[in-house]
Amino acid sequence: xxxxxxxxxxxxxxxxxxxxxxxxxxxxxxxxxxxxxxxxxxxxxxxxxxxxxxxxxxxxxxxxxxxxxxxxxxxxxxxxxxxxxxxxxxxxxxxxxxxxxxxxxxxxxxxxxxxxxxxxxxxxxxxxxxxxxxxxxxxxxxxxxxxxxxxxxxxxxxxxxxxxxxxxxxxxxxxxxxxxxxxxxxxxxxxxxxxxxxxxxxxxxxxxxxxxxxxxxxxxxxxxxxxxxxxxxxxxxxxxxxxxxxxxxxxxxxxxxxxxxxxxxxxxxxxxxxxxxxxxxxxxxxxxxxxxxxxxxxxxxxxxxxxxxxxxxxxxxxxxxxxxxxxxxxxxxxxxxxxxxxxxxxxxxxxxxxxxxxxxxxxxxxxxxxxxxxxxxxxxxxxxxxxxxxxxxxxxxxxxxxxxxxxxxxxxxxxxxxxxxxxxxxxxxxxxxxxxxxxxxxxxxxxxxxxxxxxxxxxxxxxxxxxxxxxxxxxxxxxxxxxxxxxxxxxxxxxxxxxxxxxxxxxxxxxxxxxxxxxxxxxxxxxxxxxxxxxxxxxxxxxxxxxxxxxxxxxxxxxxxxxxxxxxxxxxxxxxxxxxxxxxxxxxxxxxxxxxxxxxxxxxxxxxxxxxxxxxxxxxxxxxxxxxxxxxxxxxxxxxxxxxxxx
Amino acid sequence: xxxxxxxxxxxxxxxxxxxxxxxxxxxxxxxxxxxxxxxxxxxxxxxxxxxxxxxxxxxxxxxxxxxxxxxxxxxxxxxxxxxxxxxxxxxxxxxxxxxxxxxxxxxxxxxxxxxxxxxxxxxxxxxxxxxxxxxxxxxxxxxxxxxxxxxxxxxxxxxxxxxxxxxxxxxxxxxxxxxxxxxxxxxxxxxxxxxxxxxxxxxxxxxxxxxxxxxxxxxxxxxxxxxxxxxxxxxxxxxxxxxxxxxxxxxxxxxxxxxxxxxxxxxxxxxxxxxxxxxxxxxxxxxxxxxxxxxxxxxxxxxxxxxxxxxxxxxxxxxxxxxxxxxxxxxxxxxxxxxxxxxxxxxxxxxxxxxxxxxxxxxxxxxxxxxxxxxxxxxxxxxxxxxxxxxxxxxxxxxxxxxxxxxxxx
Lengths: 647, 410
Hints:
The complex is a heterodimer. Chain A is α+β, with helices and mostly antiparallel strands.
């Protein structure tokens, strides 16, 4: 603060007497010539005088000037704020008083160039930062944060004291610290500012710190220049390749340009004389060393310019030293910034792990949802249903059709969920009655028959709905994401899917352990003959169970359709993963399915995190892992114990 | 009493005679060597069909005889195609690059040629280096050896892991399906070194045979495919006809009992798995130069399932069934999807076969599985009045996966 005051006082002392006038009008009048034809070099003191004058009109004058709202009356060279009105201008003089109107011909509009407008804008920052309207102040802060400059620091500090809004005050204080660490002339102040942030995760902080640590490559014949703030020394071959090192030398004019193979070839081809180049027969030049010899011969004859061959390159690279040098000259600041960035990176890493965990959880929930129908049909009944994927698709398309009829998204989803269950339940029961019940003893055949159903259904859906993706829109309250900080966030739709998965888990447990149907299902799967003799109708139970599994697949299809694109191939994208989930988890146990989904989802996210550019590879490695995993636990994570396991 | 293969399998002679007759008809009907009523593209289709029949033979051996429903054998087929495609593409590109560099004043260096080939082949995926897997692509003998070795080794390792862990039945099916999916996903990446989803193309041009027309090449490939099919048919008849065949059928019917009798079930399964993988790879080697292009979509799990569909429709557990099924379904498929079958107008609905063929295939497949487990091959039993002994359809073994007695007759 004191520094600024001193600077202002110094300016004031150096200024011509006329500049120390009281009002904006007086300053303008005194510097009329400069204002009329301003240039970037000369106008600075005038603008500062206007700012320093304390006249409430100064801000209006500056603003008008920057936006071509300041005019000069040709007759008496007086300045006015002008406002187009009809054919002429409405005039306001610089004290704020109305000055009537004037035709266009009498007024010349002042048009400062971009450089001057920039100076004015900077000067105006101070006014906008103290503007009575909080929205204006917030806007000014945002514009500074977007493009911070040294000049902003002083006005920002000046505006800090008068701030009444606590939120804006915090924002101003943070921005002031960010500007301090970049632009303050006092390095101790900057270090304090950097350390004050601790391990803050804000992107703005990283944006402010990173330029401090920007480096340039420097090449030196001996030791580095003593003034340079050296980040580290690079040794060729380890930190940078020989080619890069040589490029640096060439760029620093310390070595001649290197000869590329193509250039060499062109040079040789240009110097063919009587079937020879540099005394070497043309036919021998199908070899790089022969070409090098020919070129050296030409070099010695002086017909081609000297250029570095590879041994010369190696020698030149070894004769120099290479440094990364910070653009920022102060080692204390770069040290503090590096430490701060390290702290941030560490904390960010921890946060990324949390985020990864959330991602994995939601992917697991999706896999679980896709697989839970299979956990019933395959896990409990031991029927391989390859058409399971098509049931997912069917559910998603049901949701799409409902949205065509019910425009309200919330209502349509609420209708679609039970309707999808009904549709796929019916389809499941139909398939069970017509096909699967004949194949209970022949699992391989039921695999193939359901595959036949799968291709027929998939093509049928393609014929009906076309090949392009159909929209299934989530209600507005599921848009957006739950954000914890700049790193950790999770979209509401994924939370909804997670909740849905939990509901299904509870529903499944309740159904199997607490209801008559569950009891009968378990009895029929364990021993159909015995169950039948106890008065249970196995046919009916099998039909209901299969229908139930299919119905749940339909509901899962609606959920998956909300975030994936709905095409006839939606289901086939999930079918292999779903089977994997059930097999890895352990057949016949819902907790196993849960464990399988968690493992597959988690694993896939971890592999993707290690190699983020490549989700295809992640799936490949995941499947390979599963194949290996089955080696060690052939019956899955949670195997069935006892005699029921013997199949 | 020891009998020759042919004596034990009279069907082999009939099959070979029919195949020879078919080959002669196609040759004398081709544009290059005969009357020209069989177009070059149809010769190619027939040649490709023979390769698919060869793959179906392998599928029949592993599924119909050994009872292992592998849903990943088309991965080996495509792998064979990729391996031969690498040589075809490399050698062909080399010809082009050498011809282009010969225009220069200086003779080209080996490095320049290599660089030129790499840029030509991999420019499409934004790379100009030859990946490691292409190390031997310059040499036909090495690449041909790899055609056997790579799919063979993959099958050996995968089979060893799977059979050792006693993964059987539907679990094994799902596992093999996962294997082919993993391979397909891997090849879909651009940095897999095999041009990502662009795949390998231009395989129909044989290096060094630039002046031989496609009409001739197509017939040559047709002959080779027919020869390979005939050879495989004879060899496999021997394999399934002898004692070895009895053991693998016993494994299919009751694995535990065979194990208790002292046979090393895992070794038998592993042998069959690897053998069929290699046969599939050879079929792929012959198939893809006729198709001209290969991409990772060929490894999609659906392709392997189609293989099973062909064998099931043709009739499993008999070699000619697999051949008939593959030929019949794949030819019908190209007929229907090629738009050569008139659409049926039902008033409200127009059955356009390009769109509805898959629906028909799916439904037919379900019907065959349910009502005609013997497939088309069952018609021969009817014609020959061969009837199964009536054991009221009891399963042949205690396992859920065992065949019903009525389906097991050869």
